[in-house]
Write a structure and sequence with these properties.
Length: 144
């Protein structure tokens, strides 16, 4: 009985549209920050290195390099303080956790295989127009 109550309460707290990213994607997390009586939105941009848990307790970890230091932050997926999660770069998932990025330095610390979309498939390729037929070749030969 208590499990049914927990499921019904947690189902009402789940946020929709928050599962549009996966491990390895570059994301921008828009969080609400309260300073005194003012509230503003702060952006934390980086690579998702882990997703854990499920349901109401699901979390994801975002890592970025700031002034040469690696900074990681863990966000609850269903937190009311998260305004939105925008995906910057899609990636090809290689592993469930990208903890190996912690040991990398410099530019290599942000390298993840990206998914490249074929633009040729979405853009219509113009076909060349047929060559104009000469009028003299189509006309009957004139009697001389």
């Amino acid at each position: 009985m208590s499990q049914k109550i927990l499921n019904s309460v947690s189902a009402s707290l789940l946020k929709s549209g928050r599962d549009n990213f996966k491990v390895g994607d570059g994301v921008k997390v828009y969080t609400k920050v309260r300073e005194g009586d003012k509230e503003r939105v702060q952006i934390f941009a980086g690579i998702v290195i882990a997703r854990k848990g499920g349901g109401i307790a699901e979390t994801f970890t975002v890592r970025r390099i700031s002034y040469g230091e690696g900074v990681e932050r863990v966000f609850p997926v269903n937190s009311p303080l998260i305004e939105k999660v925008a995906v910057d770069r899609k990636s090809v998932p290689m592993k469930a956790r990208l903890y190996y990025l912690r040991g990398r330095l410099g530019k290599q610390a942000t390298k993840v295989k990206e998914r490249r979309f074929l633009e040729a498939a979405t853009v219509a390729v113009p076909t060349p127009a047929p060559a104009p037929v000469a009028a003299a070749a189509t006309a009957a030969p004139a009697a001389a």
